[in-house]
Design a protein that fits this description.
Helix content: 25-40%
CATH superfamily: Aldolase class I
Strand order of the largest sheet: 4-3-16-15-10-9-8-7
Number of domains: 1
Largest sheet: 8 strands, parallel
Oligomer: single chain
Number of helices: 8
Number of strands: 16
Bound molecules: flavin mononucleotide
Radius of gyration: 18 Å
CATH topology: TIM Barrel
Length: 309
């Protein structure tokens, strides 16, 4: 929409300002470059890259994807080519296309987050924010996810924030501990927002071979099946007004997105939907704009948190 009566879609999450509230979720949109062949991904509020680690990772054994009722299980195992690959191969193309991504990173311990950050200091101006994937296992805590330990969440967030001084987003898991405590810890560490939720642990078995459907047995459930759970987490955090929330989990169309916004999310992440319809995120931006226009609402911020009162 380019006419003067088009609603204003700008959202502000602490020190992050987005032209609209629609963001691609980490791991479901590559680095955004690939989707550029379908549409101008710069029209999204932001593109989040897949999660990069210090070193290249092979990921889990196949099969890695299994479709379930209204969702999918994945056990990619955070396969990636390492942060060097982002810096040498992805970032130059993103720069050329004037796309400032949200860079998702993860480490096995705080030192790894620190080492990745040290490699990013020279390119901060080309990155809109860093998203810390705190659902990944912390080897120093017996492999439990980082976000299970609020003190560690605060430490890691503060370390990255101090080193890079750009907006930091903490991505939280629904599988461990109290998300409100993790969100408070992220805020205290200097995060601008939290992304909620990552996938829910799940599995499936083949009743004929009696074998698991995933090579790793356990995987992460995403898609419409998890939407009510995700919405509940978003709502509970937003009621407490801890920190701005990027809501995600099963958003497939603009109506889903509006539901997250009225539940208090300041922005929304589109994940699994991108696999079903390459244009999903773009359509959601347009749908939110149409919805506001039809309701004579001039600014998207007027619907954020409407269900909280
Ligand atoms: C195939 C796949 C890969 C994913 N990889 C990552 C990842 O690398 N880092 C991360 O933080 N989240 C990852 N996620 C989680 C998503 O970013 C998102 O939080 C989750 O899928 C819920 O949203 P959805 O139901 O819209 O997909 C992945 C999800 C899927 C389906």
């Amino acid at each position: 929409m380019s006419d003067a009566s088009a609603p204003n879609l700008e959202v502000v999450l602490g020190d992050i300002t987005l032209s609209n509230p629609v963001i691609s979720c980490s791991g479901t949109f590559a680095s955004g470059i690939e989707y550029g062949q379908f549409y101008d991904v710069g029209a999204l509020g932001a593109v989040t890259t897949k999660s990069f680690s210090l070193q290249k990772r092979q990921g889990n054994p196949p099969p890695r994807i299994f479709e379930t009722a209204c969702g999918m299980l994945n056990s990619i195992g955070l396969q990636n080519e390492g942060i060097d690959d982002f810096l040498n191969n992805h970032l130059p193309v993103l720069k050329e296309r004037s796309i400032r991504p949200i860079l998702s990173i993860f480490g096995e311990n705080r030192t790894e987050f620190e080492k990745i950050s040290a490699q990013l200091t020279d390119c901060c101006r080309y990155i809109a924010a860093v998203e810390l994937n705190l659902s990944c296992p912390n080897v120093e805590k017996g492999g439990m996810a980082f976000c299970a330990f609020p003190e560690t969440v605060k430490e890691v967030t503060a370390t990255v924030k101090k080193m890079l001084n750009i907006p930091v987003i903490a991505k939280l898991s629904p599988n461990t501990g109290r998300m409100d405590l993790a969100a408070e810890a992220a805020r205290d560490g200097g995060a601008s927002a939290v992304s909620v939720i990552n996938t829910l642990v799940g599995t499936a078995f083949d009743i004929h071979t009696c074998r698991p459907r995933l090579g790793n047995v356990m995987g992460g459930l995403s898609g419409p099946a998890i939407k009510p759970v995700a919405l509940a987490h978003v709502y509970k955090l937003c009621v407490k007004k801890i920190i701005p929330v990027i809501g995600m989990g099963g958003i497939f169309d603009w109506e889903d997105a509006v539901e997250f916004l009225i539940a208090g999310a300041s922005a929304v992440g589109i994940g699994t939907a991108n696999f079903v319809d390459y244009f999903a995120a773009q359509k959601i931006v347009d749908g939110i704009s149409r919805y506001l226009k039809e309701k004579n609402i001039d600014h998207v911020k007027k619907i954020i948190g409407k269900a909280l009162h």
